[in-house]
Design brief:
Layout: H1 2-9, H2 18-22, H3 27-38, H4 44-58, H5 66-70
Helix pairs in contact: 3-4
Amino acid sequence: MKLLHDARKYGARVALFGRKINLAEDPLGIIVQMRRVADGAITPEEGVKAYHAGLAKRGLKPFRPLDDDLAITDPVLQ
């Protein structure tokens, strides 16, 4: 979500996340949150938290804990 946010911040008009969406626990849920981040309605952190809340509401177990998903691990984004 941070990559999407920063891309928009610096003028990107298109972002491709096919594999990340396809391999997500809830593809539609992640698209909804990514769209909200792309529109500037929420921060990347809020998007990750909302995505995890949506997983819990649907009874789906996330692949990674929330704290791990909130961590920025890509050196380009730090």
